[in-house]
What does this fold into?
Amino acid sequence: MESGRPLTDIEEPTMPTSRQPRILHDDATAEYYFAERCHINEWWNSPDDQSVSIARARVEPGVATRWHRLPGVTERYVILEGQGLVEVGELPPEVVMPGAVVIIPPGIAQRITNIGSADLIFLAICTPRFTPDCYEDIDSESLHQP
It folds into this structure.
C-alpha cells in the first residue's frame, strides 16, 4: 500500500516488483465489502508476486461468511481479534480466538462465524495469491437461486 492506496490489480502498471525492498503500511480507508459477507483490506496482493497474498478480514458480530472454497489455493486464517467458530471440510466446528491459525488446503469447503460481541479480525494468507477467479461460492443459499 504505497501512496496510501491498497496494492490491487487495478494499479498493475505502477506496482513495485516483489524483488524491490519496501515497507508497506495499512490503509484502513482501503477496506471494502466482499460478497462473502466480510470486509477485506488487501495488505499485499500483487500480480507481480504470484506466490502469496495477505488480506485483513473483518466479520461483524453475528455474521457467518458464505460457504466457499478456493480451488488451487491454500488459505490460512491467523486470528487477531475477536472470537469465531470456524468450519473447515470434515473437521468438527471449532472456536477460534487470537493466536489461532487455521490451515485450509486447496478446494476445501470453509466458513467462519463471528460468535463474539466485537468484530472478528483475522489475516487471510493465500498461496498462491488470491484472485476473484479462484473464489467458488458453494453456499446452499446461492445454489438454489435461478
